[in-house]
Design a protein that fits this description.
Largest sheet: 2 strands, antiparallel
Distance between the termini: 44 Å
Strand content: 15-25%
Number of helices: 3
Strand order of the largest sheet: 1-2
Helix content: 25-40%
Order of helices and strands: EHHHE
Shape: elongated
Number of strands: 2
Length: 103
């Protein structure tokens, strides 16, 4: 994966600035709490997140940073082939944050 490929897909161009340790919060605002939710599979199961997200990722990267639609399709096909050989693996973390402000 090329560095920064997904930066344009995030509102903040990467990690949101308010997650930095040097951030000063307004009086009365609590520091956001975060939790990580892992998604991992070693089985090519169409009902798993790792397999279901492949077309979305391929569609997103096509045409960005020099990756063509053919490149993205070849990547998706390779993952399918890995699944057919029982060699597929996918892992991702979803980060959820909860921030509160005074009423």
């Amino acid at each position: 994966m090329r560095p920064g490929l997904f930066d344009r897909g995030t509102a903040a161009g990467g990690r949101p600035g308010w997650l930095g340790s040097g951030r000063r919060f307004q009086p009365g605002h609590a520091r956001p709490r975060g939790a990580a939710h892992p998604f991992a599979t070693a089985h090519f199961d169409p009902d798993s997140y790792g397999v279901a997200i492949i077309p979305t990722i391929a569609s997103f990267v096509a045409g960005r940073r020099g990756l063509s639609r053919d490149d993205a399709s070849a990547w998706a096909a390779e993952l399918t082939e890995l699944g057919e050989r029982d060699e597929f693996y996918f892992a991702s973390l979803q980060f959820c944050f909860l921030g509160t402000r005074p009423s």
